Amino acid sequence: MGLQTTALPHGVTAWGGFGYKVWSMNTKEGYLVNFEVYQGKCIVDNNAHDSKFGKASAPFVRMVENLPEKKLPYQFYVDNVGIIFVRWLDNSVVTVGSTLHGVHPINNVKRYSQAEKKIISVARPNLIGQYNNYMGGTDQMDQNIGKYRISIRGKKWWWCIFTFLYL
């Protein structure tokens, strides 16, 4: 069984694959700050967070509440006014929502075109660029987990979570 690590903006639906789903909060450099293992229907009553923030944002709110107040420089702000969703066709469809960033300014990035067999310039919305800048930490953590995974197989359900904690 593997461990599925998902950044918070990705997951809105329940993980239907094999393994375990982990909501993770990472620094931009790829260091894990906090995490929560997805449990599906939870015995612990989290309805206050779920009803107020929704299933996708509630794990993030719970992780932010556990951060020390004076040791880390961070700001947490939630606003339901002015939400914009952007869908961009890269190698696959990328859909991102934000209350902070918009479409403009539109930047040009270089992508390889299969049809033209060369590198072309493609317009990229600001929201997608900001997402790429700040989601690099989760991608870096996933890369490190794949590269340095402990390769001891076990039949216990908790083994992959245990090795994930000590990576």
Automatic annotation (TrEMBL):
InterPro entries: PGBD, PiggyBac_TE-derived. It comes from the Eukaryota. Pfam families: DDE_Tnp_1_7 (PF13843). Residues 83-165 form the PiggyBac transposable element-derived protein domain. One of its GO terms (molecular function) is sequence-specific DNA binding. This is Transposase IS4. It comes from Popillia japonica.
